[in-house]
């Protein structure tokens, strides 16, 4: 499989450049209380970025990651995921921009033999050093070096103005150009355009500042490198596919879902892709000991599974199916995670329980609607109805469309504004829970030792 080949090639390449190959951290970060799930390769190295000596100054990983910020985009775009693997090479006060850029270029153009004509780069608008390296040392024509601002070419994005505090720095991204036939067709289209012609494949972060409380950027004594390249996205480029979901990694899962579809809809592909993504996310969360629940990480897993079940229902699949697809995930991920096969039955059982519960909830939604909304037939209160509709959506995963059908039928007034406001409040709450916040690299948090989590989920539903 292309992803297996690419993962190995990447790690071997950086091993040849004297990097220590480090195992992926769990999706539940071991030493980082600032994030709910591991969102990037660098998270397991925060100590090293702050100067802690672990006995190595260079590392490379293929990190399993989970990001929930773009959950609603998954399936609709060609490259958003919840679960994905991030290839990364890291320097802790060792090499800096020159080597990071030269090796990234060497890997893409020499090892993977991607034509240099297809590659464009971006640099932070004030980063003359990176600009000069791309132009003079690598020989990229100036028209293919785009200067972008804080949102695109600083990491964490907009950290300068909005925080978080801690090490941060300008970044330089490498883009693959799918060609003029893709996207907007404008003559001045560039990586700054979001039409789909250019896809970012690699982000090189030059971690050289420490952001302080008052927003000042102090130069770090050690200059660090943190890079991140989405493995699935790289595979789509290498396989000549326009969507990550068309790569061989997803093919057997997508095929199996498609076989069961009984209701044809225009957005079938989007739904199938989202289910395939969410299935992998659920499997790996459970693999890492996160069980579906109503709180924190468990809530994310529950939400991901329920979202998939609603998509399956829309496609006319009303029987539990996700659990049956777990062995396919174990199969496509067998090279990096050979032990997944031994756990597949237990993971499938957890998913089956969740599927059965939610399918029951959906089956009893009529009763639920009656109990929650009957009172408002006589006594209209559209705002409360909007809030309750949100609660049904949030707690039981009942889609708004289903609720609205019932409300329409029974002539119950509903405030969409109240629903959306409740949704926004929840979004802000969950964002602050799942995104990096506070001092991303907060040294205070690094010493925190949580008790080891004992995973009992194979035998118990709750504990
Ligand atoms: N840490 C770099 C990235 O996530 O792109």
Defining traits:
single chain, alpha+beta, BirA Bifunctional Protein, domain 2, nine-stranded mixed beta sheet, 9 strands, binds glycine, 463 residues
Describe this structure in words.
With 463 residues, the protein is α+β, with helices and mostly antiparallel strands. It has 3 domains: 2-242, Bira Bifunctional Protein, Domain 2 (BirA Bifunctional Protein, domain 2); 250-363, no CATH class; 366-434, no CATH class. Helix content is 44%, strand content 16%. It has 18 helices and 9 strands. Strands 1, 2, 3, 4, 5, 6, 7, 8 and 9 form a 9-stranded mixed beta sheet that branches. The radius of gyration is 23 Å and the shape is globular. It starts with a helix and ends in a 17-residue tail after the last helix. Bound molecules: glycine. Glycine binds next to β8 and β9.
The gist of it:
With 463 residues, the chain is of the alpha+beta class. The chain contains 18 helices and 9 strands. The chain has helices spanning 2-16, 46-49, 97-111, 128-138, 150-153, 159-162, 231-238, 251-260, 268-287, 296-314, 322-332, 340-363, 365-373, 375-378, 382-396, 400-409, 416-434, 443-446, and strands spanning 20-21, 58-66, 83-92, 119-124, 145-148, 154-155, 166-177, 198-211, 217-230.
């Amino acid at each position: 499989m292309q992803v297996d080949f690419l993962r190995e090639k990447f790690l071997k390449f950086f091993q040849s450049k004297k990097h220590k190959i480090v195992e992926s951290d769990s999706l539940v970060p071991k030493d980082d209380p600032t994030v709910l799930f591991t969102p990037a390769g660098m998270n397991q190295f925060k100590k090293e970025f702050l100067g802690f000596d672990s006995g190595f100054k260079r590392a490379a990983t293929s990190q399993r990651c989970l990001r929930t910020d773009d959950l609603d985009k998954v399936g609709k775009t060609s490259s958003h995921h919840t679960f994905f693997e991030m290839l990364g090479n890291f320097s802790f006060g060792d090499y800096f921009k020159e080597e990071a850029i030269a090796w990234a270029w060497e890997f893409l153009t020499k090892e993977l033999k991607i034509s240099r004509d297809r590659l464009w780069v971006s640099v932070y608008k004030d980063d003359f050093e990176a600009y000069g390296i791309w132009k003079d040392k690598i020989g990229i024509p100036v028209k293919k070096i785009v200067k972008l601002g804080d949102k695109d070419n600083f990491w964490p994005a907009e950290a300068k103005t909005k925080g978080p505090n801690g090490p941060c720095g300008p970044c330089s991204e490498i883009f693959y150009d799918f060609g003029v036939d893709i996207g907007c067709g404008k003559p001045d289209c560039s990586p700054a355009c979001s039409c789909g012609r250019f896809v970012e494949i690699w982000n090189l972060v030059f971690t050289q500042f420490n952001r302080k409380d008052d927003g000042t950027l102090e130069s770090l004594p050690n200059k660090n490198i943190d890079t991140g390249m989405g493995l699935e996205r790289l595979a789509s480029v290498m396989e000549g596919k326009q969507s990550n979901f068309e790569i061989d990694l997803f093919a057997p899962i997508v095929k199996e879902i498609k076989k069961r579809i009984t209701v044809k809809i225009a957005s079938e592909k989007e739904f199938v892709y989202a289910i395939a993504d969410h299935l992998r996310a659920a499997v790996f969360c459970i693999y890492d000991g996160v069980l579906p629940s109503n709180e924190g990480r468990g809530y994310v897993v529950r939400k991901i599974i329920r979202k998939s079940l609603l998509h399956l229902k829309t496609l006319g699949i009303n029987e539990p199916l996700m659990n049956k697809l777990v062995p396919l995930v174990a199969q496509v991920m067998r090279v990096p995670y050979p032990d997944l096969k031994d756990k597949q039955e237990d993971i499938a059982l957890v998913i089956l329980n969740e599927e059965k519960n939610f399918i029951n909830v959906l089956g009893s939604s009529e009763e639920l609607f009656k109990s929650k909304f009957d009172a408002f037939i006589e006594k209209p209160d559209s705002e409360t109805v909007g809030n309750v509709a949100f609660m049904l959506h949030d707690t039981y995963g009942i889609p708004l469309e289903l609720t609205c059908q019932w409300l329409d039928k029974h002539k119950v007034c509903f405030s969409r504004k109240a629903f959306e406001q409740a949704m926004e409040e929840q979004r802000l709450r969950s964002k602050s829970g799942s995104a990096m916040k506070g001092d991303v690299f907060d040294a205070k948090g690094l010493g925190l030792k949580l008790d080891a989590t004992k995973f009992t989920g194979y035998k118990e539903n709750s504990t």
